[in-house]
Amino acid sequence: MRRIKITIGPVELHAKLLDTPAGNAIRDSLPFLSKAQVADNAVVFSAPGPVPQHSGQPSIGRPGDFVLCGRSKTCGIDFETLPFTRNGRRAARGTSDVWARAIGDIAALKHVIDGDRVTVRGVD
Fold first, then answer.
1. Fewest Cβ atoms nearer than 10 Å: which of 64, 88, 101, 103?
2. Which sign does the torsion angle of CA 105, 72, 83, 58 carry?
3. Which CATH number goes with the domain that contains 61?
4. What range does the domain containing 39 cover?
């Protein structure tokens, strides 16, 4: 199974799990529940189970990428473009690994509020 359904409050997303240590860790933890927190232009929620060791490289994901941060044991998804730095490169959010990519429009995530229920489950 490589597709998942993520429901965050009123928003339903489908995503493709990536074949990475972080993607495999999330797949092995399905299904799971959490609560959403909105920070900047991202929705963040707790990661279940053991988190694999991070690759050590800062992640510069694109909007719609689900990332897993091992230090804080959180998952997150940016729903708007991250700001650019002075040298014209996108700013990194810190060390995290991309574990899934959203399929379809993620703009509805702007309607998520703190405390919304998060449900993540596999689909065939």
1. 88
2. negative
3. 2.40.100.20
4. 3-123
